[in-house]
Amino acid sequence: MSIDTLLEAARFLEWQTQQQITREEEVREKVLQEREAEKRRAETAAAAAPPVRINHVTWGEESRVEHQLTPVPPPPLPHQYPLQLYPSLW
Predict the structure, then answer these.
(1) According to the lineage, what is the superkingdom (predicted)?
(2) Contact indicator for 61, 46 with CB cutoff of 8 Å
(3) Angle CA(24)–CA(27)–CA(28) in degrees, nearest 5?
(4) Which parts of 1-90 fold into alpha helices (H)?
(5) b/e string for 52-77 if b means 16 or more Cβ within 10 A?
(6) Predicted local distance difference test score (pLDDT) of residue 79
(7) Containing H/E element for 59?
(8) How far is it, in rounded angstroms, from Cα 31 to Cα 38?
């Protein structure tokens, strides 16, 4: 192999690596833009939702966010009856 062939192969590999890096950056940028757009859509939808008024009480986003589910207690253990042991007559 000549030195020119090796240099050409090295340049090709550098070019190929740069192309891959460029593609990865484009994909990363596209994903970031999609996330930002989704976040803006969610914020717009949350802001556009009017508060609900029932029985002269207004329920908005604030009340929904503060409400947290409490854990369900475990079911009670079955009632334990005392055991009486009788000596066996073998």
Answers:
(1) Eukaryota
(2) yes
(3) 85
(4) 3-48, 61-66
(5) eeeeeeeeeeeeeeeeeeeeeeeeee
(6) 66
(7) strand 57-59
(8) 10
Residue 82 has which token pair?
Answer: 């005392």
User: Which residues of the chain are modeled with pLDDT < 70?
Assistant: 48-69, 78-90
Sign, Cα dihedral of 9, 13, 15, 16:
positive
Cα separation, 45 vs 59, in Å, equals: 16
- CB-CB contact of 51 with 58 (8 Å): yes
Token pair 């589910």: residue: 69
Q: What is the phi/psi pair of residue 82, to 5°?
A: -70, 140
The residue with tokens 């908005």 is 60
Separation between Cα atoms, residue 35 and residue 28, nearest integer Å = 11
pTM check: above 0.70: no
**Residue ranges per structural domain of the chain:** 1-34
